[in-house]
Amino acid sequence: GIDALINRLADLYSDRVREIFPKMKHDIQKKLKEVRDQLEKLPPSLETASARLTKYYELAEFYIDKILKQRFTSSSDGRHPISLINNLHIKFKQFENVIHGQSRELFTDKYRVKVRDAMSACFGEQLPNFLPHPVLKRLIGEKLDQLWTVATLLINECFHKTMSILLENDREECHDDILLLKLLPLFRHIAIDYLNDKKQAINDQLKELIRLEKHDPYTLNHYYMDTITKFKDYLAQKRAENGVKKSSSSTTDYDDILMFDSVSNDDQAVQDMLVSIYTY
């Protein structure tokens, strides 16, 4: 019985050895292939400064053309919202809606009372047919401050979104290029610094423009006088029609009509001030 048991154990060990060696061979071959693939991906030997610089420029061009430019120009298929242009378009539409809402503040009774009270404190200081310039300047300055707050928020959000889209999953675009992966943090840093510089430049330009506007409100834009003229024509027509509501044929902007109707029952000086602020 012992001999039979020994023979049986020998057969089992023999079978196990025959099973293990082919598997070991396969695993070793698979590992060798992985090592060869990794060796093939290693960058070539860059022994001179010229060779290293050439390779650096090559990778920099690849990063700009195949990663950054692709993110700038990519379009959404309607299912994956990765379009940078579309994201910025949404931000600007939100900005437009906020500015539109702030403009509507001029149409409210509360704002008309505010203007009337501010002007009342200046009556007697100059001829009644002139708008009190300090009041006009202050009220325009307040609206410009609102514009500055919303515009800086828009700028910061747009650049933040741009950075996110440009740097999102950029490692996947490197295709396991070891040298490119090593340089990727440097390229990211350069891209972020460039965008931050541009953001700061735009902020500074806008800040200076608003500072100049607040210092001395002035415009040569024909829209300003055209709207003032439309308002006077609108009031004249309403008086001629004895209060019957009818829009002037030259007045097609809904906000213009809303402003004209909202101030038509105020004192002449308050009317002029409100329309001047709205138009400016």
From TrEMBL:
<dbReference type="Pfam" id="PF01031">
    <property type="entry name" value="Dynamin_M"/>
</dbReference>
<dbReference type="InterPro" id="IPR027417">
    <property type="entry name" value="P-loop_NTPase"/>
</dbReference>
<dbReference type="InterPro" id="IPR000375">
    <property type="entry name" value="Dynamin_stalk"/>
</dbReference>
<feature type="domain" description="Dynamin stalk">
    <location>
        <begin position="1"/>
        <end position="231"/>
    </location>
</feature>
<protein>
    <recommendedName>
        <fullName>Dynamin stalk domain-containing protein</fullName>
    </recommendedName>
</protein>
